[in-house]
Hints:
Blueprint: E1 7-9, H1 18-31, E2 35-38, E3 42-44, E4 54-60, H2 66-79, E5 83-88, E6 92-94, H3 100-103, H4 105-111, E7 123-124, E8 127-132, H5 138-144, H6 146-153, E9 159-162, H7 171-180, E10 186-188, E11 211-212, H8 215-225, H9 231-242, H10 248-261, H11 265-274, H12 280-286, H13 299-307, H14 319-344, H15 365-378, E12 383-384, H16 395-403, H17 408-422, H18 434-447, H19 452-466, H20 477-490, H21 494-524, E13 528-532, H22 553-562, H23 568-586, H24 588-592, E14 595-598, E15 604-609, E16 613-618, E17 627-628, E18 636-637, H25 638-642, E19 647-651
Parallel strand pairs: 1-2, 1-13, 2-5, 5-9, 9-10, 10-11, 12-13
Antiparallel strand pairs: 3-4, 6-8, 7-8, 14-15, 15-16, 16-19, 17-18
Helix pairs in contact: 1-2, 8-16, 8-21, 9-17, 10-12, 10-14, 11-14, 14-19, 16-18, 16-21, 17-21, 19-20, 21-23
Amino acid sequence: MTELRCTYRLQLGPGLGFAQARALVPYLAELGVSHLYLPPSFQARKGSTHGYDVVDPTSISEELGGEAEFRALVAAARDAGLGIVLDIVPNHMATDDANRYWTDPELRARFFDIDGASGRHRRFFDIDDLAGVRQEDPEVFAETHRLALSLVRDGLVDGLRIDHPDGLADPAGYLRRLADAGVEHVWVEKILSPELDPPVGEQLRDWPVDGTVGYEFLNDVCALLVDPGGEEPLTELYAELTGETRPFSEIAFEAKLEQARTTFRPEVERLNRICPVDGVERLLASLPVYRTYDGGRSPEDRAVLEQAGLPDLYDGKPAEWVTRFQQTTPPVMAKGVEDTAFYRYCRLLALNDVGGDPGRFGIPVERFHAANRVRAERFPRNLLVTQTHDTKRSGDVRARIGALAGMASEWAEHVRRWVGINAPLKGEAGAPDAVEEYLLYQTLVGAWPISAERLEAYLEKALREAKRNTTWVDQDTAWEGAVKAFARRVVAHEPFLEDFRPFAERVAEAGHRSAMAQTLLKLTVPGVPDIYQGDELGSLSLVDPDNRRPVDWELRRTILDCGAGGSDRDREKLALIRRVLALRAERPGAFAGAYEPLDAGPDVCAFVRGGQVLVVAVLREAGLDERVAVPWARPVRVGDITDERSYGLLAR
């Protein structure tokens, strides 16, 4: 396998198939990545924009170019020294006429998890036309993995990213079967609770994998860069504007319980047919993690159940009930927290991302170091992300919004002023309400400049996900229209823009400093950095589908080739990535070596890799005047190492 130095995630689909990806290989090789990280590439339903709605896991997607083009892409990558990581979808397939496993009644009964009593099938989350696959059956596993295993065995694919393993009946058994089949490198899309097991959070089980896809790092590095001094004033501002004073945990539990009682009613009914249990909806909403795995027998599961106040949850229950309960808590968590509560609680939106806990305002440097040490010991090839196709915001947008914590009082003054300036722009319905208006202002400073079309599309999704004044199922188009109209008026309202533009530029500059520190840390702490397509330049993307917009590849090639084009910030970000990836290629031993934290105060994150490379990330401006003890030299002022910027790197 090509040495894992950095993966680069492409989001294939209409306009970016295997042939177009092949044309990008020289650019990606020159950038310095080691692996091309592909999304699901098996045959999906007609018109699929993402590949997660597979209809035939035994064939390569014709829409993306078919097997010949896939092999041509792999060959080009190999010739350029790049490996291949492939995303696969074992948990579900599309209920589509093109899916022979679904249309054949005999195959459907064998391959899919069907409720014999109702005829309903286990779904992927709340999506009726994605049906759960019975991967616990060895024959089903063998058939649905025939192509994936052959690609690994034949050397076309180096490793697999496993989508949503928590939906499977037996994730550990599934992963052991992959390992037994010869798949040596596997990453799981597993969400770990940041607050379950202090000081470093819930840990990945001892599965035969290289690690997770990296959401725990995303949330830790975001929290590290959020100024803890902003918590009190931002909490007070949020309460003043919205009247909301409850902690996030209460809002999350309420949303999970709501989802268990409504969206996941079929799953609850199936559980009660197996074994009637009073208040099963409340039980589903009570776990502090996505799921347990062995019915409460492991120390990890016992700790989870004790924390939830449910130590006897699985006692006396049939094995089928326990398994299905464990398969149901992940969608309740995902839809209740990430796709509901994250849009209802808007104290600081930078903290509202996949795997995050918005109730945790920030973390000290010591906790960040502790998590890195654990990763270095247990899963040194864990992926490290700051943006994926599933994140609520790009890393750069998150960095801008997070920077508001460092200017909380000034931000509060501006928001109060904007509420007054824009009050006449509201229609008779009074839309947006206070929560929605505050979400709008944070989104604007995070993604500015943004077109009215992109903003309206985002707001529509955010409003429906929040399920407060409109929902996907019961759409209040009048309310939605009023909120969109308000947003259109706001971004064209000169009295607002006169006050907003200068402040937004200050936020953008502070956010850029945070984003650069964030990028340096992703590239240097233990693990394998992953770059989402286009994110080597400034990326101001919001939630899907906004983050799947076409990428200007020519601009990136031009900047890489001759350092011209784009903005100063774009060029600085790409130059940092290229520099660090070149250093990783030159000194692989250093980045596979020890991780040694250095004490430089609460406003600086500093460490040495392998005794050779000193990394310094400035979290807040006060850190520039701190001194750090360079192991091979005398102590140095942080600002001298970083040239007064937010990041610095010294190689011995």
